[in-house]
Design brief:
The chain contains eight helices and twelve strands. It is of the alpha+beta class and 294 residues long. It has two domains: 145 residues, MutM-like, N-terminal (N-terminal domain of MutM-like DNA repair proteins, Alpha-Beta Barrel); 124 residues, Helicase, Ruva Protein, domain 3 (Orthogonal Bundle). Strands 1-8-9-5 form a four-stranded antiparallel beta sheet, covered by helices on one side. It has a four-stranded antiparallel beta sheet with strand order 2-3-4-10, sandwiched between helices. The chain has a two-stranded antiparallel sheet with strand order 6-7.
């Protein structure tokens, strides 16, 4: 699932490529990607709107339109946006058959187009989503504010300090891995980065959050900023489906220490990386370096 670095990468790309353009036409190859209203209603409301900004909150992508409207987008497990020239061609089942960008034609992860926004600058904005879990909603500013109010602080917020993190964790008896992935507590961290942050901090994923000492909290805080920043620099993790708006994979996956490295040696101690399930998610850690506290 795209997490903070992946969604932020897409946001930064789209900020450069589509802000200031107008939506001329919307074509849904899979209309059910639009939620709450029929696709025809959505298209009528979206067409003719100017794109004035692109934002991210937690794992949500927000495309702000003129007239106080917003495209609220969650990429879920396998969604990602692609930008191409509007002369590019896509089959009815979402496969590229004509495009100047070779990555669109050759990378199978880009071959699941579900919706296309044609823009007045000669470009198209298309979403590829293998598993069809992603969604798009058209909401006004009031609805958007209400929806986003349920999320916790962002790791890069100025007022998100180690002390603030400590306050959050002190109230939770659940496993630290689950707390890090709880978007109502801390926004943007998912399975990949929770594993990497806890390994770097030498904290076992099942440790109750309220049993962490000040040094461990500080380590989690610092490593969260460091690892998320490094992944953003490397344009995200593409061990699965994620691609940027050019259809290219991010490279942070090459620098993983534990995520999806079951039975491979720990970079520090050489012991095998283990895999357990925490909160229904596959969780990777080093049993030697990350001792469990019960």
């Amino acid at each position: 699932m795209p997490e903070l670095p992946e969604v932020e990468t897409i946001k930064n790309d789209l900020d450069k490529k589509i802000v200031g353009t107008k939506i001329v036409l919307v074509n849904a190859l899979w209309p059910d990607i639009i939620k709450d209203v029929p696709f025809e209603v959505f298209a009528r409301q979206a067409e003719g709107q100017k794109i004035i900004a692109v934002q991210r909150r937690a794992k949500n992508l927000i495309i702000k339109l003129s007239g106080g409207l917003n495209l609220l987008i969650h990429l879920k497990m396998t969604g990602h946006f692609l930008v191409a020239e509007d002369s590019a061609e896509v089959t009815k089942d979402g496969k590229w058959v004509k495009a100047k960008n070779k990555h669109l034609l050759t990378d199978k992860q880009n071959q699941f187009i579900r919706i296309i926004f044609y823009l007045d600058n000669g470009k198209m904005l298309a979403m590829s989503d293998l598993r069809k879990f992603a969604y798009i909603k058209l909401v006004d500013d009031k609805e958007l504010a209400k929806f986003l109010d349920k999320y916790g602080p962002e790791p890069f917020d100025k007022d998100f300090t180690a002390e603030k993190l400590g306050e959050i964790l002190a109230k939770k008896k659940t496993a630290i891995k689950k707390v890090l992935m709880d978007q109502s507590q801390i926004a943007g961290i998912g399975n990949i980065y929770a594993d990497e942050i806890l390994w770097a901090s030498r904290v076992h994923p099942l440790t109750p959050a309220n049993k962490l000492n000040a040094e461990e909290v500080e380590a989690i805080y610092e490593n969260a900023k460091k690892i998320l920043s490094e992944s953003l620099k490397r344009r995200g993790t593409s061990t699965s489906d994620f691609r940027d708006t050019e259809g290219k994979p991010g490279t942070f996956g090459e620098f993983r220490n534990v995520y999806r490295r079951t039975d491979l040696p720990c970079p520090v101690c050489g012991g095998p990386i283990a895999r357990i399930t925490v909160g229904g998610r596959g969780t990777h850690f080093c049993p030697r370096c990350q001792k469990e506290i019960k």
